Amino acid sequence: MFNNIQEFYNMLPMIIIGAGILVSIVIEMYSRKSEELIAWFSVFIFIAAAIYSLLTVNSTSIILQGMLATGGNVNILYFIFNFGAAIVTLLSLDYIKKYGTYYGEYYILLQSSVLGMMFMAGAKDLFMIFLGLELMSICFYALAGINRKRLNANEASLKYFLLGAFATGFVVYGIALIFGTAQTTSIDLIVAKFQELSGNLLFIAGILLFVIGFSFKIAAFPFHMWVPDVYQGSATTIAGLFSTGGKAAAFSALIVTVGAIFSSTIGNLFEPYLIVISVFSMLIGSIVAIAQEDIKRMLAYSSISHAGYMIIGFAAGNSEGLAGIIFYLAAYTFMNLGAFGIIALIEGKDETNLSIKSYAGLSHRNPLLAALLSVFMFSLAGIPPFAGFFGKYYIFIAAIKAELTWLAILGVVSSAISVYFYLRIVVLMYFKDAEFEISLEKSNTGLFAVIVSALLVIALGVAPGSVINLISSFF
Amino acid sequence: MHIQIEYYLILSAFMFIVGVVGVLTRRNAIVVFMSIELMLNSANLTMVAFSSYLGNAVGQLFVFFVMAVAAAEAAVGLAIIIALFRNKLTINIDELNILKW
Predict the structure, then answer these.
(1) Interval A287-326: pLDDT, tens
(2) Chain B touched by A176 (CB under 8 Å)
(3) What pLDDT sits at residue A268?
(4) Boundaries of domain holding B85
(5) How many CB atoms within 10 Å of residue B14?
(6) Does the residue B17 lie in any domain?
(7) Interchain pair A228, B36: CB under 8 A
(8) Is residue B100 part of a domain?
(9) CB-based contact (8 Å) between A44 and chain B?
(10) N or C: which end of chain B has fewer CB within 10 A?
């Protein structure tokens, strides 16, 4: 299976997670306190895989007969997925008790979906992208409806499942057409042949179908309608995972395919299409979010507009744009997971306390949570000392270098609109009195996870240069 | 008798369009799911046709993966539909309106 021992070491993050899934299944079968045990075991394997991939970031190679790439940005993405999943697990420890899904399989599905994300990020072949995508998505469909007694969750998971499978149909048909015209599924060979194929209508149709299918997974414009419903209906911690890990994985698959093709050719064939989806995603997300009263729906629309900003990086089509997308994904993962984590801490039994009004006067009742949520809201709005600002900054710089200044200006306008609804939460917390009392349940692990993500958001905002230099050095 | 590749491609494109139209117009969750399966099978037909036309076995291999994944997806999907039916006694997607659609 492995040509030499080095291949084994390079693949170790995946092996850790894959073996962890098998061990977790055994724990689930034989242990009485499996829920607690599997949770801590998941945290352990996620952290181990995250740290290992960060330590081996320089050992770039292509392994398994050209199926997977390791090292470089792939490992940075592995770190994002695994560290994000560890934060989600820590948040879930107390949350799933009050949500009523205190099952061990929750964590096993979480681990499997992370394995799928890792396959997508490292893929060098359309096979791997398809398998990773489906491994991740099928686990997500099950996770969305993990509480089968709640009608909200049933509805969210059915919508997610039907639209997700619909999008998969597009991806598979796109891959079929690409295979037929390029005569291979290896991404490197397709990129090498791109010049002679760019006149072939079937090939172009294949790539277009592929991108359309993926715009569902990244929650961008033509396929964004499911996002608010699914986020609102599923468990808060899981919604956090959908909006960060799921989105980051789909973006990384687009980076290895679309990004590779665009950076290798002179003309960016799909630039008009990408510009259209990014403009509509940004504006629809920012404007509709203003009208939302449910905080999870508000963050769902904000997630649509963040997808729009990231697509600007693809439209720019240069290596600065791709590096900017990866930095943005890191920043977005930690700030959004932190925001969802605080929602999960404040949420009461039976999905109460989810309206924006429940945050009024939070600074008097719990100053620490209010301060942390302000950090995440400022970062999501893109206000300078935090990570979110630099994510947008690098993307807009790349757009200006690609002579898309007007698109960058539109992005700035859209993020100025979005400041309104992010800061509304901050104003409610600090300058309004509570209309009704809410009782907070204590969760030490959850609080710890939120503090860790806040520290990462601040760290990425204080020293963005070294991170972006590391990412750019691999392009 | 040798059938040209164009016929296969036209047939599979037709199947794909029937699937898309089915997803967009039908209201029963099971029928929508069947339309999605039709889309996946049209992709499989394209793969097999190209594979035999090009003499490249990769396409046929891919079909096996797609079939396995479609089976896994069907298992999860039907479970979700049953869970919904137990709570709501309907699987008409127009009546799923607790969350604003």
Answers:
(1) 999 988 899 999 999 999 999 999 998 888 788 888 999 9
(2) yes
(3) 63
(4) 5-95
(5) 11
(6) yes
(7) no
(8) no
(9) no
(10) N
Instruction: Please list the residues that pair with A334 across neighbouring strands.
Output: none
Quick check: is B39 in a domain?
yes
**Range A359-364 contact pairs with CB under 8 angstroms and sequence separation of 24 or more:** A359/A295, A359/A425, A359/A428, A359/A429, A360/A428, A360/A429, A360/A432, A360/A433, A360/A434, A360/A435, A361/A428, A361/A429, A361/A432, A361/A433, A361/A434, A362/A428, A362/A429, A362/A434, A363/A429, A363/A430, A364/A433, A364/A434
Contact B80 A179 (CB under 8 A): no
Cβ proximity of B80 and A145 under 8 Å: yes
B chain contacts of residue A175, beta-carbon cutoff 8 Å: 43, 62
Give per-residue pLDDT as tens, B46-62: 999 999 999 888 889 99
User: A29-55 burial, b if ≥16 CB within 10 A, otherwise e?
Assistant: eeeeebbebbbebbbebbebbbebbee
pTM, entire model: 0.93
Comparing alpha-carbon positions, the chain A residue that sits nearest to B81 is A158
Domain harbouring B36, CATH code:
1.10.287.3510
Using CA coordinates, name the residue in chain A closest to B9: A177
**Residue A474: alpha-carbon gap to chain centroid:** 21
Asked if A161's CB is within 8 angstroms of B77's CB, the reply is yes
For B:20-79, CB contacts with A below 8 A are 20, 23, 29, 32-33, 36, 39-40, 42-44, 46-47, 49-50, 53-54, 56, 58-59, 62, 65-66, 69, 72-73, 76-77, 79
Q: Is the C-alpha dihedral spanning A437, A363, A392, A452 positive or negative?
A: negative
A387 to chain B nearest CA, in Å?
32
CA A187/CA A184 separation, integer angstroms = 8
φ and ψ of A413, to 5 deg: -60, -45
Rounded Cα gap, residues A216 and A222, in angstroms: 8
Domain count for chain B: 1
